[in-house]
Amino acid sequence: MLQYKAPLRDMRFLINEVLDYPSHYATLSNGADATPDMVDAILEGAASLCEQVLSPLNASGDKEGCHLKDGVVTTPAGFKEAYAEFVAGGWQGLSFPVEYGGQGLPMSLNLFKTEMMGAANWSFNMYPGLSIGCINTILQYGTTEIKKHYLPRLVSGEWTGTMCLTEPQCGTDLAQVKTRAEPQDDGSYAITGTKIFISSGDHDLAENIVHIVLARLPGAPAGTRGISLFVVPKFVVDPDGAMGARNGVGCSALEHKMGITANATAVLNFDAAIGTLISEPNKGLEAMFTFMNTARIGTAIQGVAHAELSFQGALPYAKERRSMRSLSGKKDADQVADALIWHPDVRRMLLTQKAIAEGGRAMVYGAAQIADKMFNAVMEDDKVANQQHDDALGFYTPILKGFLTEMGLEAANLGMQVFGGHGYIGEHGMEQIVRDARISTLYEGTTGIQALDLLGRKVLLNTKGKCVRDFSLTMLGLAKGHMFASGAMGKMARTLVRKALQWNVLTTRIMLRAAGDREQVGSSSVDYLMYSGYIMMAYYWALQAAQASQLLASGKGSESAEFYTAKIQTAEFYFERLLPRANAHRAAALAATSAVMQMKLDNFQLA
């Protein structure tokens, strides 16, 4: 059965040599303790937890799933003990404020840990993962009393958190939310309604679960302008902060899912449950976006995690499994047949997985530096810097979530394909990765929703294309130093220049068309998102190749020459074999909307 091994060599390459996190941490007010030795110790400790504790539970948890009996939810065998070890290690509080029991380190360190946990056991990772958005929401919008009562035990991991948005009649369209919040004489609210698809919604890992719930106040405006946000704990928290009686919220069902079966996805019924208003009345959606954006970046990590895990399963199999002879002659002459890895198409699949995992990791780690700067600006009350970094991260977020989850699913499917028929058999663990990965393109906003957010809101409405122009300048800045170089690096640099210019022209053309055709944004958006993802990943692969080339030439790198050579060659593969896909997405994005919209409804019929 597949066992996860943390890719520490690649992580250190990005952290120390490509993105220069040591210098980055030196600029942060909470970065003083994030020394190279401290960072390395955190990476090693998280790797040990993931490899020795979480990974061995991945397959067994998938097979057993969660249980609901008499209103009580239990997680698979071993999960409760693993969670206790997670809490004892202080892992939940890694990047949260010291005043609430956290370690006060930059949030990017938590992201590195999350990637490893997600690849080792995505179902387990979701239990503490949902708490992160809950904590961030309370940190930003909670009153002093709410923070005092909830944050210490959320930060320690003693309690976990959820986000409760979706209802039976609405998912993305939150304007249809019907859950009610009735004011009570003591200042609390009675929350009544049903929420579905609530990840980690009920379980036996923590003694209390803090639900962040969207609901409507009496007389609230219709639509999203009338939604408020509430803190609703599973067990009521008394005025002195102690855990009291069971609240009026219970799990009536667990969803039967395609994957991530070891995470309890619950139907929660709120029956006059006691809740506390967070943020201002009727402005709950704005506050909830803090939670949602946190979750979206976390879901982008899922794409990277599943690509990495599938590659870790496929590569050894391709080296060991023998089938036929190489087209160019025998490679393993003393064996009955050559190993799969000698066949070009198998190498294509493996290199695609490797390019997605390592390119996606670089994209996420690049975005994490922006998030560090944004939170640093919040701590320093620098509103201008905060807005600047928030805008930059807002541009990254739909690309990371939409593109990387689609690519992660592709990588997971390729892992199965390398195994052939054996990939379809459960004992190898490859089909589980596909099942677990499939949800990533759906929850926290489907790929289509991310695409509308990117093109409609972030690019056209909010910035009139400035976010693309800004990133293009970053691309040109990297390409400038390598434009006239010979070999692979020069070729990649010149391609970056062409793509940077093409991206801006594409954006302008869609903007002009959308002015006269309201459906243009909707018909172009997914292709535009995928195009943008391929271009952004090209930048990060060129960045890695440039640094690997420099370290290889100087001999001053911390890794072997083989490691750096493999980086350059993977970048070449990406530019030659994967980046050309962007051209097809560009052509589709520019196609007239008539091909999509001209068919009459009566012609949409089953044969």
Oligomeric category: single chain
Main β-sheet: number of strands, strand sense, barrel status?
Answer: 7 strands, mixed
Structural class: alpha+beta
Count the helices. How many? 19
Radius of gyration: 24 Å
Q: How many strands in all?
A: 11
Low-confidence stretches: none
Q: Secondary-structure element sequence?
A: HHHHEEHHHHEEEEEEEEEHHHHHHHHHHH
Mean pLDDT: 95
Helix content: 55-70%
Outline:
The chain is of the alpha+beta class and 607 residues long.
Give structural notes:
The chain is an alpha+beta fold and 607 residues long. It has a domain at 465-596. The protein contains 19 helices and 11 strands. The strands form 3 sheets. Strands 3, 4, 5, 6, 7, 10 and 11 form a 7-stranded mixed sheet that branches. A two-stranded antiparallel sheet has the order 1-2. β1 (67-69) and β2 form a beta hairpin. α6 packs antiparallel against α10 (344-379), α11 (383-419) crosses α16 (520-554) and α16 runs antiparallel to α18. The two termini are 44 Å apart. The model has no long low-confidence stretch (mean pLDDT 95).
Looking at this protein, list some descriptive labels:
seven-stranded mixed β-sheet, 11 strands, two-stranded antiparallel ribbon, 19 helices, 607 residues, alpha+beta
Question: Topology, pairings included?
Answer:
Elements: H1 8-18, H2 21-26, H3 36-54, H4 58-64, E1 67-69, E2 72-74, H5 79-88, H6 107-120, H7 122-141, H8 144-156, E3 159-164, E4 180-183, E5 189-199, E6 208-215, E7 228-233, E8 235-237, E9 243-246, E10 249-254, E11 265-278, H9 284-320, H10 344-379, H11 383-419, H12 430-438, H13 447-462, H14 466-480, H15 487-516, H16 520-554, H17 561-578, H18 581-589, H19 594-597
Parallel strand pairs: 3-6
Antiparallel strand pairs: 1-2, 4-5, 5-11, 6-7, 7-11, 8-9, 10-11
Helix pairs in contact: 1-10, 3-6, 6-7, 6-9, 6-10, 7-8, 7-9, 9-10, 9-11, 9-12, 10-11, 10-16, 10-17, 11-12, 11-13, 11-16, 13-16, 14-15, 15-16, 16-17, 16-18
